[in-house]
Specification:
heterodimer, A: alpha/beta, Rossmann fold, 7 helices, 5 strands, globular, B: mainly alpha
């Protein structure tokens, strides 16, 4: 009896893995971006999107709202004020979701390392899947970073959304420490 | 109609649905590639739209309440039901039931389902988008129906497959694009409005109202909306091909007409800017409606184009 149960569980697991593999193929080849363009690295995105580098070849395209998007692009420095909005946007996206950070500012603060209003390390607050280096990163580097993200999705290393789910307490603690208070204003249900 | 006919008709309808999905989704991808070439880009793979739809269906979808979920299903069901009635070449699921008014009314079920679902999400931008979509519908329906009713009056039948068959009697000379050129022009402008192509893209407006009705959709629900979008394009373009371009007898003729209409509409969309909603209504109620009335008067009083 238990052997048949084991077989069923094993079969179920295999089926689930197969389905996950198919899902990863589709997710890797159809990435919709939400561009959070408050930093200066955003200036490199138009070249990457238009005819010179043509991001659409990879199946990527811009989307209007967080709900529709798969990838959140944080292009450059984040002040404490904008960090709050980025967290709202990230939490609105439906899983699986990925986060790409541009330039040195989200890594260690960059040239804003001692600014009082700018956060230094983004991965204290949100899980980052890919960093793109360069101040600002050239369009080649941007395209390379997106290729890295696609490879990461294919071989399961881009799992920031799982890390965020598993370590939510830690991320939440850091967010609250930095922002003071996390308050979601819900105009429709108040 | 006995049970056997109902069964066969349903089967044919399902085959038409499967055909419509693969045909229109492939064509949307190809059109994205053509548009990309116009931008001097390389463009995505031609099966990109399939990837997008299946990716969305594998994502998790959050709900905004049962109205939101039910509205999506009602919209998809309504549009799929409408698509089953559409004659493709000589194949029609329910012969004798493909009356023009079937499409007008069944299509509205899908549109209303989508409106209900979008408003159910509670986002004000969705409400604005729905309001604009329905206002635009009032704009293009009137001139389109004037032309179609003139055509129905002239040919003495309201069945879409019969209207197509009438045009196949003597080749090009009997097509409605030759017999009713003004009406065809009006029909094409209204088709741009139905497809939401660019001068009439007001209800989507991604940069202005964050894609309007779709603003709160994500994951599975957005995937279902994309399916709905492909089916509704199929209905609208098929209707235009059947009514104005003489339907189609062969696969090649069908493909050429359908692809030609859809690609032309997509390319026009790339060259134009977006109207404001009051401009849309003023536009539709100025030129298309005037031309439609002229065409109707010609058909009724001069008897041309019958």
């Amino acid at each position: 009896m238990s052997e048949t149960m084991d077989m069923i569980v094993e079969k179920d697991k295999k089926l689930k893995e197969g389905w996950e593999g198919i899902s990863r193929f589709f997710r890797a080849n159809s990435l919709w971006m939400l561009m959070y363009c408050t930093g200066c690295c955003a200036i490199e995105l138009p070249q990457a999107m238009t005819s010179r580098y043509d991001m659409e070849r990879l199946g990527m395209g811009p989307m209007a709202t967080p709900r529709q998007a798969d990838v959140l692009l944080v292009t450059g420095y984040l002040s404490v004020k904008t960090l709050r909005r980025v967290i709202y946007a990230y939490e609105q996206m439906s899983t699986p979701k990925y986060l790409v950070a541009f330039g040195p500012c989200p890594i260690n603060g960059g040239i804003y390392y001692d600014a009082y209003a700018v956060i230094n390390r983004l991965d204290q607050y949100l899980p980052v899947d890919v960093y793109i280096a360069g101040c600002m990163p050239k369009p080649e580097a941007v395209m390379n970073g997106f290729q890295d993200l696609i490879d990461g999705i294919k071989n399961k290393t881009a799992d920031g959304w799982k890390r965020y789910r598993d370590n939510y307490e830690w991320y939440k603690k850091n967010q609250v420490e930095s922002l003071g208070e996390l308050r979601i204003k819900d105009e429709f249900h108040e | 109609m006995n049970m056997n006919q109902v069964f066969l008709g349903t089967l044919t309808g399902l085959i038409i649905l499967v055909f419509a999905f693969f045909w229109q989704t492939t064509l949307s991808g190809v059109t994205r590639k053509i548009v990309a070439r116009f931008h001097k880009r390389y463009g995505p793979k031609f099966y990109q739209e399939f990837r997008d739809i299946f990716k969305l269906l594998t994502k998790t979808g959050i709900s905004h309440g049962w109205v939101y979920n039910f509205g999506v299903m009602m919209a998809l069901g309504g549009i799929m039901g409408t698509a089953m009635f559409m004659p493709v070449m000589q194949f029609a699921a329910f012969p004798g039931l493909d009356n023009i008014f079937i499409y007008v009314y069944l299509f509205a079920v899908g549109m209303l389902g989508m409106a209900m679902s979008a408003v159910g999400s509670g986002n004000p931008l969705a409400g604005i988008g729905v309001m604009r979509a329905l206002t635009q519908m009032v704009g293009y329906e009137v001139p389109f129906m004037v032309v179609v009713l003139a055509m129905v009056y002239g040919h003495g039948t309201a069945s879409v497959s019969e209207l197509a068959a009438v045009q196949q009697t003597a080749g090009l000379a009997t097509w409605n694009i030759v017999k009713m050129p003004i009406g065809t022009l009006v029909g094409f402008i209204c088709l741009l409005g139905m497809l939401g192509k660019k001068p009439f893209e007001t209800f989507i407006a991604p940069a202005e109202i964050a894609s309007g009705p779709m603003v709160e959709y994500g994951g599975k629900q957005l995937g279902m909306l994309m399916l709905l979008h492909e089916f509704s394009i199929f209905i609208e373009v098929s209707l235009f091909v059947n009514l104005f371009l003489g339907g189609a007898v062969t696969v090649v003729g069908y493909a050429i007409k359908y692809v030609g209409v859809f690609v032309l509409a997509s390319l026009i969309s790339q060259a134009l800017g977006r109207f404001k909603i009051d401009q849309v209504i003023k536009y539709f109620y100025r030129w298309p409606i005037a031309l439609a009335l002229v065409q109707a008067l010609i058909v009724i009083f001069l008897g041309w184009g019958v």
